[in-house]
Known about the structure:
By secondary structure, the chain is of the alpha/beta class. The chain folds into 2 domains: 22-62 and 216-363, Rossmann fold (3-Layer(aba) Sandwich), CATH 3.40.50; 67-212, de novo design (two linked rop proteins) (Up-down Bundle), CATH 1.20.1440. The protein has helices at 2-24, 33-44, 65-76, 105-124, 129-133, 136-156, 158-164, 174-189, 218-229, 242-249, 288-297, 318-322, 342-352, and strands at 50-54, 195-200, 207-212, 232-241, 263-266, 309-312, 329-334, 359-363. Helix 12 (318-322) links the parallel strand 6 and strand 7. The radius of gyration is 23 Å and the shape is elongated.
Amino acid sequence: MRSSLRLILFFLMAVSCSRGHQEVALQQGKWDPQVLKALNGLMANPGTGAYAVFDFDQTSIVHDISQALWVYQIEHLRYADAPSHDFLDGIPSPEKEMPGTELSYAAMGHILSSEYFALKARLQAGESIADIRASSDYLDFRARMNFFFTKIDEQYGSWVSYLWQPGLLAGYTCAEADALIRDAISEHLGLEKLGVERWTSPDGRWDGDVQRGIWVSDEMKDLYKCLEAAGIDVYICSASLEQIVEVLACDTGLGFGIAPERVFGLRFVEGEKVVPEFDPQYKQPNREGKIDCIKAYMAPSYDNAAPLLVAGDSNGDVPMLTAFPGMKRGLIIDVGRSADTPIGQLAVRSREEHNTGVYLLQPSFER
Length: 367
């Protein structure tokens, strides 16, 4: 009798586990079949105390949320203190000449501020934003802004550009900044098409490409949900400003519904208003800093074990994709990086192994 009961209980447990496994299996969607198989296999037997770490821009979402906010601020003329500071917050040695020009950063910043205040005055006087955007003054302003950002990134590198771009929120309270970020997300998620737009000044001197739109794919939402259902805690480790990422990542409707405590991005010093200055007491997750961030703020909750899964798309993610010997899978979202780059070399390796090794290459989930 007891033996029969044991058999019945075993059968019921097997059915329950089968159903549980079925619940956390990813939907096919646009997943590469071999990647889908590997991820479902990972979730089928994760063990206890497991966690996964995702980059955000171009990995968890399509395109870049910081870029979306930056474009939105330009197109809606939405700044607080940045124009009063000639858009120079966070730029070292602003008297330095911008490459390929005869202008210093300070001189260009002053021109940008003058253009901005003139455009803002027209808006406040009742002129429509549509008419303003069609004017040569506005077209010059937005092209200069794009050129300005490009040169900052080229000459000073990511630490400065990652400070400068979200630093354009300077002067807003946290609540005001959140509302602005939400407005930008709503507009860019609502675009029919994602793409790249050319911004050129009327005189042709300032020219460059800008990404438009962001997208949160059903496939990535499903992955986050299934990982959690399988008992694998999901974290975000991003080189975008944490405040910007949280607005989308923590939204249960538009984003992933992830808890704010599991979102780690770049952090400014705390204050009543946004101050474009990195918090020196925090391990900022940029490039190798992502390893430090994981080890300091995530791993201790799991007996300092390596993440089960790490996902990224860029050279900035390579450190965390290669730093943990105990990592079971490294998911690389393929957005067309050159094979000569570090992330490109990992992509080549995954192709050669036909997605059967540690690294899995998945094409981007473009809308």
